[in-house]
Design a protein that fits this description.
- The complex is a heterodimer of chains A (151) and B (253).
- Helix content of chain A is 83%, strand content 0%.
- Chain A contains 7 helices and no strands.
- By secondary structure, chain B is mostly helical.
- Chain B has a 3-stranded antiparallel beta sheet.
- In chain B, helix 3 packs antiparallel against helix 4 and helix 9 packs antiparallel against helix 10.
- Chain B is elongated, with a radius of gyration of 22 Å.
- Classes of the chains: A mainly alpha (151), B mainly alpha (253).
């Protein structure tokens, strides 16, 4: 039940974000899908005791792969899909808690949380860049001919 | 000679307009530079150097005559992914040789003058719904769904309103997040909402600079150090404004 709930809300939240960013109407559904894939991966990994940072890297990596797939298929810039997918992963909650502890003069806990938020935003970026690097390697390597033949 | 010079200037005008629209709509720096170079190359200017920063574009085209350089200033930046996609589409068509310089300029002008594909209320509605959904995603209870919906929607509306009132981003973000904090506090003290933290986190999400952070890191990795740092500073300032707004709420609490 929880997973079902998470699937639906993450889909709607990602698609709604594309509307906020004035994204093209025809890509709303795909953006929602990308966001859903990323969030559910993160959610399941985290629920099964995987470290938050690692879970974020894996989720953002798969988001980037899914976005590149859609971008190639529909000839739209990658950024439209990846932004929608990444929004749920942004460590808003941790950053908020860090801020709250700063205000309440609990600096030790605040710095702890801030470092965690920083690590997570860094791992989102690493996941994204990693998949882009792999994508470029594939494009430049000999695989290109195979991919071209199969198309 | 005169004709040729005029044509180079026309090519530059098309490239700069395309670059300006993309940069103002929130595209990554490398995409802007790449698009400008591609357009210039498909119109016959093979040696071109775009230099793109978040606040301006420098563009120079080399040819037989002395190098020509133009500069445009970018002041207002928004997020409009539809425009990024449209300019991308036009650049593809130019590369395929489907447009002349004049036609391309007209098409780009049309894009630059077009408004948002969604109305204000749809934006607010989207922000409200996403706030509610984020609350559930962050393990909030369904009882808090409605308070988060209202808080997020009104918070986003106030962001747009304050931005119109005073065109300083920091101020509008600070005021919007302050309002979100106060609303959440209101819902919790009246007993309509339960968890203050969850409601605030969910409602603040539409203001969070996710696109900026992503773009900043991508620019840095791609070697556009100045753009990356500038966007990172922008994102940090936004995050700080949101945090400060919420922090003020806690002092009432």
């Amino acid at each position: 039940m929880t997973i079902f709930e998470q699937l639906i809300t993450s889909f709607i939240a990602s698609a709604a974000f594309v509307i906020i960013f004035n994204g093209p109407k025809r890509s709303l559904f795909h953006c929602g899908l990308v966001g859903m894939i990323g969030w559910i991966l993160y959610f399941l990994l985290e629920a099964n005791g995987v470290d938050m940072v690692l879970a974020t890297v894996i989720a953002s990596f798969s988001i980037a792969i899914a976005s590149q797939y859609f971008a190639k298929k529909y000839k739209t810039p990658v950024i439209i899909y990846s932004v929608a997918g990444i929004i749920p992963l942004v460590p808003g909650g941790i950053a908020y808690n860090a801020m709250r502890n700063f205000v309440q003069n609990d600096y030790n806990l605040a710095i702890n949380l801030a470092a965690k938020a920083f690590m997570i935003s860094g791992s989102i970026a690493i996941g994204l860049v990693f998949s882009e690097v792999i994508n470029q390697i594939i494009r430049k390597s000999k695989l290109k001919t195979i991919v071209n033949k199969s198309q | 000679m005169e004709m040729e010079r005029q044509e180079t200037y026309d090519i530059m005008a098309v490239c700069l307009l395309a670059g300006k629209i993309m940069l103002q709509s929130g595209a990554e720096t490398y995409r802007v530079e790449d698009t400008m170079m591609r357009i210039a190359a498909s119109f016959g200017a093979h040696q071109s150097h775009p230099y793109v920063t978040p606040t301006g574009i420098l563009f120079s085209v080399e040819g037989d005559e002395p190098t020509k350089t133009k500069l445009i200033r970018i002041i207002e930046r928004t997020t409009d992914l539809e425009k990024v996609a449209s300019v991308n589409g036009i650049s593809r068509k130019i590369s395929a040789g489907e447009y002349t310089i004049e036609e391309a300029y007209k098409q780009l002008k049309k894009i630059s003058e077009s408004g948002s594909p969604y109305s204000l209320w749809i934006h607010v509605l989207a922000a409200a719904i996403s706030s509610g959904c984020f609350l559930i995603m962050f393990q909030g209870s369904w009882g808090d769904f409605f308070p988060a919906l209202i808080t997020g929607g009104l918070g986003f509306l106030s962001l747009l309103y304050f931005h119109q009132l005073v065109p300083i981003k920091f101020f509008s973000e600070f005021s919007a997040s302050l309002l979100i904090g106060l609303q959440a506090l209101f819902f919790v003290t009246t007993g309509i909402g339960e968890e203050l933290d969850k409601i605030i986190i969910g409602s603040v999400m539409p203001l969070v600079p996710g696109l900026l952070i992503t773009n900043a890191v991508r620019d840095l990795m791609a070697g556009h150090l100045i753009s990356g740092l500038a966007k990172g500073a922008d994102a940090f300032l936004t995050a700080f404004a949101i945090g400060a707004g919420i922090a003020v709420t806690f002092s009432f609490f």
